[in-house]
Amino acid sequence: MKKGFVFISILSLFAMAFVANKNVLFMRPKYFPQPIYNFQKNPLTKEKILLGRVLFYDPILSQNNTISCASCHTSYNSFAHTDHALSHGINDRIGTRNAPALMNLAWQPIFMWDGAINHFDMQSLAPISHPDEMGETIEHVVTKLQSSRLYPPLFYQAFGDSIVTGEHTLKAIAQFMLTLVSANSKYDSVQQKQTSFTAQEESGYRLYKKNCSSCHTEPLFTNYQFKNNGLTIDTTLNDIGRVKISKNSKDSFCFKVPTLRNLDYSYPYMHDGRFKKLKDVLNHYTQDIHISSTLAIELQKPIQLTSNEKVDLIAFLMTLNDREFVFKKEYGFPELLRK
To answer: How does pLDDT run across 39-92, given as a tens digit for each residue?
Structure first.
C-alpha cells in the first residue's frame, strides 16, 4: 500500500480497510475528499470490474461493431483521445464535442460537458445511443451480448445470473470506470511529503493558486461546476452548452470545468478540442477572453501573466501528470478479447 493512501470500504465509505466476500476496496489518498458515488447500491467486485473492462474495450456495443468506449477514451491518453478534436463514431461520423479524459469519476456529481447525465451508472447509455457515436440501442446490445459465447459466463460470475440485462451491462461498465483513480503524480508525492517541487514548479504552484484554483480546485483540480470560460462560439458547431439541458439562460455557453490532471496526455483542450497546446490555453485566458453576459465571474478581471510566468505555470501543471495511471496494465486492453 502506498504511503498516504487510505482504503474506503464499499459498504461504509469510511477510510478503513475492509474485506467482505468478493467485494474489493476503493482506494483514495487521505487528502482526497470522500467520494460521492453510492457504492452501497453497486458494490465493487473483481468480477464486475473485469466484465466492465471487457465491455469498455469491445466494439460490440456499437451498431456496426466497430466503435468501443476505448475508441475515444484510450488508456495511454488518460482515457481521452488525441488524434482529433471531436469524437468520431460509426460510419466515420463526427460528434460535436471533444472526448474528455476519464479519471476520478467517483467524485463527480454530474456528467458530460453539459451535465446531461446525473447518475454515473447511466452515463454509458449516452454514447451507446448517440447516432454519431455508437448509434446503438441498449436493447440490441443486450441481445448481442446474450448471443455471444463470451458474455453469459462473465455475467454469471459478476451477477450470479447468465441472463444479460441493460442494468447489469451499464453497472459493470461503471464499475470499471470507477477504478480509474489518478493519484500518483509528482503533485501527489509532494502532498504525501515524499518529494518537493523545484523552484520553478513552486512558482507555478503559487500562480495556479492565485489564478486557477477557484475553478480547478485541489486535489481533484476541478470544482465540477459549469462555467462560461470566454471562448468565442464555433460557428460550425454552434454549441451553446449547458443551457440546452437546464433551459436557464444563465447557463448559455457554460461547460463543465475539466480536471487539470494528466494534461500532458489528454490534449487537445476545451469542449471542442480547439487548442492543441497548453500555451494556447494560457494565451486564451490572458488575452482572448470573449466578454458576454454569462462570462464566469472569475474571468471578469483579466488574468495577467508574463511569458516567464506562463512557463512556470506550465511547469507546475506538468507535476499533475500520472504516468503510472496512464500505463497501468490493469486498465489496458483485456486478454479475454484477444482470444
So the answer is: 999 999 999 999 999 999 999 999 999 999 999 999 999 999 998 999 999 999
Predicted TM-score (pTM) above 0.90:
yes
Same-domain check for residues 236 and 294: yes
Tell me, what CATH number does 123's domain have? 1.10.760.10
User: How many domains does the chain contain in total?
Assistant: 2
Q: Which of the four pLDDT bands, split at 50, 70 and 90, describes residue 7?
A: very low
- Distances in Å between the alpha carbon of 185 and those of 132, 204, 273, 274? 35, 16, 24, 26
Burial of 198 per CB tally in 10 Å (0-12, 13-18, 19+): middle
Q: What residues are paired with 94 via a beta bridge?
A: 88
Domain-embedded: residue 332: no
Strands 226-227, 26-29: pairing is: unpaired
Residues 192 and 154 in one domain: no
